[in-house]
Design brief:
Elements lengths: L10 H16 L6 H15 L4 H4 L18
Protein name: Guanine nucleotide-binding protein subunit gamma
Family: Belongs to the G protein gamma family.
Subunit structure: G proteins are composed of 3 units; alpha, beta and gamma.
Length: 73
């Protein structure tokens, strides 16, 4: 399926697409940023103990740990 380029469409089609998008957006339930940011912060803080990027990966469960080293004598 070829890619659709907006600039290749006639003006009428562009306007139809814009109206369709605006109709979708007007139906969205909106919330205040101050409330959402507080909820996101709480969510992150509650799960930070389980986050391997914060807590780290135990050595015995680390899939990237080298299995053994090679010694040349």
């Amino acid at each position: 399926m070829p890619a659709l380029h907006i600039e290749d469409l006639p003006e009428k089609e562009k306007l139809k697409m814009e109206v369709e998008q605006l109709r979708k957006e007007v139906k969205l339930q909106r919330q205040q940023v101050s409330k959402c940011s507080e909820e996101i912060k709480n969510y992150i803080e509650e799960r930070s103990g389980e986050d391997p990027l914060v807590k780290g990966i135990p050595e015995d469960k680390n899939p990237f740990k080298e299995k053994s080293s090679c010694i040349i004598s």
